[in-house]
């Protein structure tokens, strides 16, 4: 769910570049180790570039501090949204309770 949320909210995130396959060359990475040895069900690695993007609104542009900060903010919003979605399901809360807070959070994360 987190990658889907990020693909909807973060302009620098590309779901098409994601790989959820555990390749032999990745077996010693932290995300695979915590999944296998500790049992963390959803462990991700987020990679970044300073060279630039080949998709989205940042296509052809070099990534700078501002874009990295935006991605960090969108990641935090994604985690909050994921938590609130889980809480709404757990406590059977109406989904529109998430909208007002999400709008406030989203407006504070915009890079200008």
TrEMBL record:
InterPro entries assigned to the protein according to its UniProt record, in alphabetical order: Cytosolic_carboxypeptidase, Peptidase_M14
Co-factor requirement: Zn(2+)
The question of whether Manganese is a record keyword is answered with no
Report which residue ranges the record marks as coiled coil: none
Q: Cross-referenced PANTHER family, in alphabetical order?
A: CYTOSOLIC CARBOXYPEPTIDASE, CYTOSOLIC CARBOXYPEPTIDASE 1
Membership in a protein family = Belongs to the peptidase M14 family.
Q: Which Gene3D superfamilies match?
A: Zn peptidases (3.40.630.10)
**Domain of life assignment:** Eukaryota
Record: active site: 47
Residue intervals of the Peptidase M14 domain: 1-83
| GO terms under biological process | proteolysis
Q: Name one GO molecular function term.
A: metallocarboxypeptidase activity
What's the protein name?
Answer: CBPC1 carboxypeptidase
Sorted keywords for this record are: Carboxypeptidase, Hydrolase, Protease
